Fold:
Amino acid sequence: MTVVPQIAVNVFKESVRDKILYNLVVFAVLLIAASYLLGQLTAGQDIKIIKDLGLAAIATFGLLIAVFIGIGLVWKEVERKSIYSLLAKPIRRSEFVLGKYCGLALTLLVNVSVMTLAFYLVLAYMGWRELPAVRAGWPAPATDPAMLEAVVLIFVELLLVTGIALFFSTFSSPFLSASLTLGLWVIGHFNSDLRQFETVVNSPVAAWLARGLYYALPNFAAFDVKSQVVYGQPVAAQYIVLTVLYGATYLAFVLAAAVTIFSRRDFK
Amino acid sequence: MTPGGERSRSSALVSGAVIALLFAAVVGLQAARERVGTELAPSAATGHVLYVRSPPFVTRAALSYRSVAADVYWIRAIQHYGGTKLSKDPNKQYDLLFPLLDLTTSLDPHFNVAYRFGAIFLAEPAPAGPGRPDQAIALLQKGLQAQPERWEFAQDIGFVHYWWEHDYTKAAEWFRRAADMPHAPNWMSGLAAVTLAEGGNRGSSRRLWQQMLEDPGAADWIVSQARFRLAQLDTLDQIDALERIVMTYTQRNGAAPRTWEDVVHAGYLRGIPIDPERYPYRLDPARGRVELDPGSPLGPLPAADQPRPSIKLETGPSTPLGAGR
Structure:
């Protein structure tokens, strides 16, 4: 299985060559500009808003990378016809798919790590320039390490989104893959509504169908603990472990499906 | 340099010049638009438009960006309030303040400062606010539903009843509820008792604002609002003291003073009295009343049935009031 890391490193290098990491500059500029401007606009809520904005930006930039790079991972090789020369080498199709996935996961890891570092640096500066009396009134310290819990869950969510994007890209066009991935991501935030569908419909069949979808579709809302950590509210370790486990299992399911479909695909 | 290189260099220079020219044109046109601006521009009423007012819809549509959406609505609420307050429009409309705060707190039920902002500014009468204590109370009750342990919201409801509705029984009842909540400070039960016993005593009003002023976690705007209200209470005390002096002057001289100079020459004051913002008080000789200068930033003072001073004043050749311009 040494092939998988080699493909992964190549994907990462390609993303660097494609200037994907430029988003980090945008992120840093966004945060620094926002930290300067928000103090004038938010009536004393600048730290809270920078935390919200920073976490949302980490999630958004990651989502865009996961979807729009994820859908091209396999498709680009097929489109360029480089898939033929790749598969002619002693590379299993499963290794190819997993290598591609791990490469993008590595890109996301670097992205999220650097964005998190920049996020904490901006918050540390904002916390440092405030008076101790003002800091005492905050619900959580500016550089509260508990925010990393939200970052970890965002990263797991991004890994899952990447897996879904890759899954769709093994059998459909980039446009369709992006639409389906984003569609699933949106639906995944309405999961609790599916759970309570029986309270708004009379049909038992519809209620059962909704209940089935609730269990089958990815529950992306579960990965969102941003508002809790911003207010310094504790997130139970058990919740995080269970959610990470859920994400990892769903990811394994999606990757297994992607490998299966790709392995059976005929490129003639 | 080769002819090809020279050509490429001059082509780059031309491109750079064209880009710079186009950018300068954009900046120039924007400046021209600004100058012509108001006549040609479409209605500027868009600042007073809120397309989506349904909190459940916005909450769902925000997906995992609820906190950021709440921040956006919070900033809009601040801009709406500040912009309207500072506008020169004689008929100031704060009609979006409640919906914006309602959306903010629906998206983020822990946005405590939004509830407190509403408590203070929704109840404020025109022209400084919409004059809707009912909305202020509704917002705070929503906060209490989301966080039943927040004694500050119960205190703020009591405060709205006290300061804006002058309903001291209800105010005392809410202060009592706040006192019974976990982590409520010890002085809260005392405040409830004083409010019930003394009703609209100005001293208890002062105590309320003083406590807001001394709250270490209070936002800047709460502190400045508390300072402003305390200055207004000082002003009310000073006006009462001055009216007593005018009354004494009238009783001793058989006629009311026509100007402050009359009172100063008679030895009742050291100089023309000024308010805490250093504006001279106005004397109405016909009614023997003392009023705030219309230009003073302390106006309008709280309503006439606001608590009158509990202090006893000595009238004499000089008063504790400052001598002014």
